[in-house]
Design goal:
11 helices; TIM Barrel; alpha/beta; 37% helix
Length: 340
């Protein structure tokens, strides 16, 4: 694998991030410790160094498995990302949310489970719509200054909140958020309305979760295979089916898997993107790793973009109009031909 810089930093991470939400067998699904070790070994042997987890994944088991694995590895080789926000115990009213008290408690618990002295990338997991963003950024900066965290990021949060946060960080000299984790795939392109343009502006790397649409873009549901997606999911509607068929057609042309095409698409959209590839089976990871050898042509991208196009809404669609001419002297607008 090639390595990329994460956001506006000097941190080098592999071009595919390994998602570990499935490490552990709680909740009736996932993979055990031995199989998780096998997956991480294969990922590392392929040059992968970027692991993504969270305090809540499998009730903390995901972090514990990673911690046990890292105990017998070169810790400094790996870039470990974890998150806080979601409730991971019932001890007190502040055991969830974005507040500083929960942040500090969560970090200490994660460090214990990961058996490490520091977290490479620390995300706010999901916006609680309560805590002031300056409280979050100040707390994160304190963790960086304490050496418990190296870099910070944010996940599943409105673009205006992230923009306010990074503007404050720049003004106050706090550590900026360098990574933005969001759902993004060929069947979930709504982040293109606000989140992705914002990330580009601040030089943030986007780390898409569910880049395969929960497995829908692999074509397995078209083949009648069972999965964890609810039948009423938007990932299984007529639009998603049409997009998946377009992916399969290009995959057949290239002689690769549909998953390879869907993953590669997220990395060729004109912004910094490192997709998170989850795996509960070694075979799943092995197929995902083949993505690094795939290149989509301009024609492939055109077909996929057209099949999955969304309405950007206002003002996105308004900005697509190919030049609203302004005569500053006459004070009138002359709308000209749209791009289509």
């Amino acid at each position: 694998m090639k390595y990329k810089l994460l956001g506006r930093s000097g941190l080098k991470v592999s071009e595919l991030c390994l998602g570990t939400m499935g490490f552990g067998t709680e909740n009736g699904w996932g993979t055990d410790k031995a199989a998780s070790f096998e997956i991480m070994d294969a990922y590392a042997n392929a040059g992968g160094n970027f692991l993504d987890t969270a305090n809540l994944y499998k009730n903390g088991t995901s972090e514990k498995i990673i911690g046990d694995y890292l105990s017998n590895q070169d810790r400094d080789y790996f870039v470990v990302a974890t998150k806080y926000s979601l409730k991971d115990n019932l001890t007190n009213p502040n055991a969830s949310g974005n507040n500083r008290k929960n942040m500090m408690r969560s970090v200490e618990e994660s460090l214990k489970r990961l058996k490490t002295d520091f977290i490479d990338l620390f995300y706010l997991h999901i916006w609680d719509d309560i805590t002031p963003i300056d409280e979050v950024l100040r707390g994160m900066d304190d963790l960086v200054r304490q050496g418990k965290v190296n870099y910070v990021g944010i996940s599943d949060t409105p673009a205006w909140v992230v923009a306010q946060g990074n503007t404050l960080a720049d003004l106050m000299g706090w550590s900026p958020m360098i990574a933005l984790q969001i759902e993004y795939s060929l069947i979930q392109r709504t982040p293109e309305r606000e989140l992705i343009p914002m990330a580009k502006h601040f030089g943030m790397t986007v780390t898409p979760w569910a880049p395969l649409g929960g497995g829908a873009l692999t074509g397995k549901y078209l083949r009648g295979e069972q999965g964890r997606i609810k039948p009423e999911s938007k990932r299984l509607n007529d639009n998603a089916v049409a997009i998946t068929k377009a992916v399969i057609a290009i995959a057949d042309e290239l002689g690769v898997s549909p998953g390879n095409v869907a993953l590669k698409w997220t990395t060729q959209q004109g912004f910094q993107s490192i997709p998170i590839v989850g795996a509960t089976k070694l075979s799943q990871l092995e197929d995902n790793l083949k993505t690094v050898d795939v290149t989509l042509t301009a024609e492939h991208l055109k077909k996929l973009n057209e099949a999955s196009a969304i309405d950007l809404g206002f003002p996105g669609e308004f900005f697509r109009e190919d030049a609203v001419k302004v005569n500053t002297f006459g004070g009138f607008y002359d709308k000209v031909e749209k791009r289509g």
